[in-house]
Design a protein that fits this description.
This protein has 298 residues and is mainly beta. It is built from one helix and 27 strands. The strands form seven sheets. Strands 6, 7, 8, 9 and 10 form a five-stranded antiparallel β-sheet that branches. Strands 1-27-26-25 form a four-stranded antiparallel β-sheet, with no helix packed on it. A hairpin with a 5-residue loop joins strand 4 (60-64) and strand 5. The longest helix is centred in the N-terminal third of the chain and has 17 residues, at 3-19. It starts with a helix and ends with a strand.
Length: 298
């Protein structure tokens, strides 16, 4: 058989999985238009019917898609990525303020949507305090044992500290450093089935590991990964010139690293994706919130 023909045949076979995989955007709409000003760092709950977001001045709010009501969680300053939905339906968040000594102090709190009230969970402290979602509740991770767990068994959870990713499974905490990253890890999250963890390693990109810390896939140098379902993640692909963003788009990535496609164009300046209940919510660089639904054809 002709060598050139064989090479063409092999190339065609290698392309078959990609050619057979398509994504259809079934809906796309602007959220809270004319109701809210700029909104950033959206976080959907697992069911996709409630959405946390941070306003331009740092206040934390959530929107209920069922009744259409937007509620203020706190008007105190909440930095981006410092709020999450716990598995118990409550909001775990961290406020921060500058003390008289000019140091930043962070305070962990919990908001109950049923009562509309917040509860103080940790005293103000200097140093990192992280809000961590768990399958049975939530936690606040802080140095020196000054954190908080919502119960003695919060279920499964994951978070990052420096160049370590922590995973709690069945009450056991495991700590891994599966890839070298001098600038550390960010944005750890569990897959919906609780069997894998995705996180971002500076200089390496998105890493997927199993619950024993073994690397399963490297998905590319993208940011803010979130699980769309057990097989796919949505991530941000942003470029900058050292001073400001020059482009930003959303990508859909297969969790095994074999395939990816764009959901928005680089010029759209779309970023900060979150997933839940089959929805994808994201914001633009000027704080416009959007919701997208997709259909994956395999």
């Amino acid at each position: 058989m002709d060598k050139k023909f064989i090479m063409m045949l092999l190339a065609t076979v290698m392309l078959l999985p990609a050619m057979g995989q398509e994504v259809e955007v079934t809906s796309q709409r602007r959220l809270l238009e004319g109701v809210e000003g700029p909104a950033y760092y959206p976080v959907l709950n697992e069911a996709g019917n409630r959405l946390l977001f941070v306003t331009e001045d740092g206040a934390l709010k959530y929107h209920d898609f069922i009744d259409g009501v937007t509620t203020v969680v706190t008007r105190d300053y909440v930095a981006g990525n410092d709020a999450c939905w716990g598995g118990d339906g409550k909001v775990y968040y961290v406020t921060q303020e500058v003390g008289e000594d000019r140091l930043v102090y962070r305070t962990g709190q919990c908001f109950d949507a049923l009562t509309g009230k917040s509860t103080l969970l940790t005293e103000p402290q200097h140093g990192a305090v992280r809000a961590v979602p768990a399958t049975r509740g939530g936690a606040l991770k802080a140095p020196g044992g000054k954190g908080y767990n919502s119960s003695s068994d919060i279920g499964s959870a994951t978070w990052t500290e420096g160049s370590h990713v922590h995973v709690t499974v069945g009450g056991e905490e495991r700590v891994f450093s599966p890839v070298n990253s001098w600038a550390g890890y960010l944005w750890a999250s569990l897959s919906p089935d609780g069997r894998r963890v995705a996180f971002f390693a500076a200089g390496k990109g998105i890493v997927v590991i199993d619950l024993r810390g073994q690397v399963l896939a490297m998905l590319g140098n993208y940011e803010m990964p979130c699980w769309y379902n057990n097989d796919y993640l949505v991530a941000q692909n942003a470029k900058d010139d050292g001073h400001q963003f020059t482009s930003s788009q959303l990508l859909l990535l297969k969790a095994d690293g074999t395939w990816q496609t764009e959901l928005t164009k680089p010029a759209s300046m779309t970023m900060q994706p979150t997933c839940g209940g089959g929805k994808i919510v994201y914001t633009s660089i000027d704080g416009l919130l959007y919701e997208m639904t997709i259909n994956i054809h395999e």
